[in-house]
Amino acid sequence: MTHRSPLAQKLHLDTRLVHDGQLRSPFGETSEALFLTQGFIYDTAESAEARFLNEEPGYSYTRYSNPTTTMFEERMASLEGAETGRATATGMAAVTAAMMGQVKAGDHVVAARALFGSCRWVVEDLLPRFGVGCTLVDGSNLDEWRQAVTPATKAFLLETPSNPSLEIIDIAAVAEIAHAAGATLTVDNVFATPLFQRPLALGADCVVYSATKHIDGQGRCLGGIILASVDFIETHVQQFLRMTGPSISPFNAWVLLKGLETLPIRVERQTATAGFLADYLAGHDKVARLTYPGRADHPQADLIARQMTGGSTMLALEVENGRAGAFRFLNALALIRISNNLGDAKSLVTHPATTTHQRFTEEQRAEMGIRDGLVRLSIGLEHRDDLMADLERALAEV
User: Fold this and answer.
1) Domain 263-395 carries which CATH code?
2) Distance between first and last Cα of the chain
3) What is the pLDDT of residue 10?
4) Whole-angstrom distance, CA of residue 153 vs CA of residue 135
5) Which of 257, 196, 207 is nearest to 229 (CA)?
6) What pairs with residue 188 in β-bridges?
7) Which of 221, 232, 253, 271 reaches 20 to 30 Å from 131, CA-CA?
8) What percent of the chain has pLDDT over 90?
9) Residues pairing with 133 in the sheet
10) Contact criterion met (CB below 8 Å) for 216 and 255
11) Structure pTM?
12) What's the order of all strands across the beta sheet hosting 108-112?
């Protein structure tokens, strides 16, 4: 079901994020309508039968689809350059559905080692419980991707920039390896946002987002989305979602629609501030290491220039004195608050080794570039000078 403007290809992205996917009721509302309903009414028994057979357009049950959810899915598909999308209750529901919908017992998955902790749990712990093998690789090493392929390999998974070390993976090259093996590539694009990176255009088959992050951008609700071709969604995702039910609330879909209207304004401002703060922190004597995709000293700056059109709202810094130094730094911050969330209008900070990646051993964290002194910063909409002053005060405590 498509509701994109016939002028969509001629309109700028900012305009499409305000208008695309609009479904107006007979009342002609300006804002998108919020359809808080579990089910829908059929005029006849024949109509109900036809709708369940997918022979008649319309809605039957909000676990399957809902007009408000459809608007969010259509707007996200337009933003991503995808044929279609399916919204989910959370970002992790999107990752889990995208991966589990593609594999069965006896299949094999290859994934980058540097993943968000819960994503890695899905491929490393959950899928093997159902007979699906998994091999983890250094995402930046293309030879490891090639060597990990087996005759049973069906899917690749990566995130770039990675959480939290901001490692970059060559999407086009990994997609080529996956397709040569008869496998698909799914990319978690949360840190780059669809504004700065287009995995589908680079060869990926599927893109997933935690819409909880930049898409909402104001800490209000949870949500996720899977974006791909119609064939991919119908083959791997649709039935899994319908039968297992990780459905997004129509209210959350409505909130996310409102978030999309201001996404470019927020992310562009946050990214500009992140770049300013990265330059300041890179020269600070209390910062042992600073990683930011928008700086020329990023180890993969050449790849970033080919693959991304902007930096990120995220930066990673390593402070002196390991965990003790990191804790002193976090506890001394007054404006930037400690939280494991990101992409918010408020600047947030977390210590990955003891939160998002705490379940891993020290050796596993080292393989992912997560040392005890590493701190992840998500830059918000505050004035950059106020954030710099807060960071300066906190670094004095390290």
Assistant:
1) 3.90.1150.10
2) 55
3) 82
4) 10
5) 207
6) 159, 208
7) 232
8) 93
9) 108
10) yes
11) 0.95
12) 84-88, 224-228, 206-210, 184-188, 153-159, 108-112, 133-137
> Whole-number mean pLDDT of the chain?
95
pLDDT at 176: 98
Amino acid identity, residue 110? V
Q: What does the alpha-carbon distance between residue 27 and residue 33 come to, in Å, rounded to a whole number?
A: 10
| Torsion sign (Cα): 214, 220, 222, 228 | negative
Rounded CA separation 7/372 (Å):
51
Query: Starting at the edge strand that comes first in sequence, how are the strands of the sheet with 287-291 ordered?
Result: 287-291, 314-319, 374-378, 348-350, 337-338
Amino acid at 245: G
SS3 392: helix
Residue with tokens 């698909």: 184
- Please report how the helices 384-395 and 250-282 are oriented relative to each other, as an axis angle in degrees rounded to 10: 60
Neighbours of 336 (CB within 10 A): 21
Question: Mean pLDDT over residues 98-120, rounded?
Answer: 96
Contacts of 146 (CB under 8 A, 6+ apart): 177
Confidence at residue 305, expressed as pLDDT on a 0 to 100 scale: 97
For residue 181, give every residue at least 6 positions away whose Cβ sits within 8 Å of its Cβ, in sequence order, or none: 149, 153
Contact 126, 319 (CB under 8 A): no
Residue 73 has pLDDT above 50, yes or no: yes
Burial zone of 239 (CB within 10 Å; 0-12 exposed, 13-18 middle, 19+ buried):
exposed
Q: How far is CA 98 from CA 101, 125, 236, 254, in A?
A: 6, 16, 7, 23
Q: Measuring CA to CA, which residue among 345, 343, 319 is closest to residue 331?
A: 319
Computed from CA positions of residues 285, 289, 294, 298, in that sequence, does the dihedral angle turn out positive or negative?
positive
Residue identified by tokens 């695309």 is 20
Bridging pattern class, strands 206-210 and 224-228: antiparallel
Both tokens of 181, joined, read 């093996």
What per-residue string of b and e applies to 276-290 under the rule 16 or more CB within 10 Å gives b? Answer: bbbebbbeeebbbeb
Structure tokens at 11: 């309109």
Q: For residue 68, give both structure tokens.
A: 């408000």
pLDDT at position 4 over 70: no
SS3 89: coil
Beta strands per DSSP E along the chain: 84-88, 108-112, 133-137, 153-159, 184-188, 206-210, 224-228, 287-291, 314-319, 337-338, 348-350, 374-378
